[in-house]
Amino acid sequence: MYRKFIGPLIFITSSALAEELPLKLGAFLDTYYAYDVNNPSPHEREFTTQPVRHNEFNINLAHIDAVLKQEKTRGRLAIQYGQSVTKNTTGEPRLGATSGPQDAKVFQEAYVGKKIGSRTWIDMGIFLGNIGAESWISKDNWTYSRALNLDYVPYYSSGVRLEHQLSGNRSFQLQILNGWQNMSENNNGKAIGMQYKHLLNDALTFTYNNFFGDEEVVPEPSTNKFHPRFRAYHNFIIQWLKDDRWQYLAAFDVGHQSQQSNKGVDGWMATTLTVRRILNPTQSIAVRAEHYSDQHQANVVTGTSNGFKVSGASLNFDQKLDENVLWRSELRGFYSEDKIYPRGSNDKNRMDGFIVTSVSAWF
Questions:
Q1: Closest residue by Cα to residue 218 from 207, 210, 229
Q2: Which pTM does this prediction carry?
Q3: Are 289 and 258 in contact (CB under 8 A)?
Q4: Domain map (residue ranges) of the chain
């Protein structure tokens, strides 16, 4: 029952504090309708985090937040709801009475930070994942849905984050984390995440993200039990804002994980290219091509012989309805080597596709 009161209570408390502190209050709402050509039952799409529901109007993401920015102190508290939240927290460990998806759903971010040098910050708590060029918050991306390589990396992390500005155009992050997208622990080890960002010039940015840790991510097929296995992941991003009309975003990801029953490793990779065209101050289009290959099912489980080997493409159209209101539509399709996509109630298909239209607003 506490969930009925925690959001309003925090919002009221934050409003009172905002009069005394440099606190910025905000909110975001992303509503959508999606239709999948395979007509999956029961109205739920697989191998995706957004949009999840088929042939229904729903909430992808809604949050309210309070952001604190001072000279030597910072933080963000964001309370959230939505189908992407439910989908992204299904794997949260449930160990003991004080962990599980029901608690992970509440907080999008909840951290506080302290400046410990002229160019260094340290934050502790729950924060958005460091891997990838696309945010959980759809309005901040060039496309509505997230790319395949980013659907299968942490949306959120829990731990300590050290951020250092190496120079005017280079920054570095070091993170000590509970693990691969889990607020609660599922083993006795901790994981490490790092980020290096270099603004090569006003238009070109290079970013490198990684993750290293013993993780219990994919169950052993024969026993359906989880065992810790060392996982390494690398994410390379190039963003080129060529001019006021053309923008380009390319990413290449590679990961590997120790095998369950021998001393080998299973690897996977993904690549994405997105091109955005600004038509005018209120309209833009974006085209994305992508490929994901996880034959050994180290990161994405399909239960098929070729694993998760999928290529896809999408077309996105944006129309700003107001300064803080965005109407966005996307047409997206996939092709898999195996029949993995649900079609109807009892069938599978190699191909999948959907159209989604969304209206989002924020302040």
A1: 229
A2: 0.89
A3: no
A4: 37-362
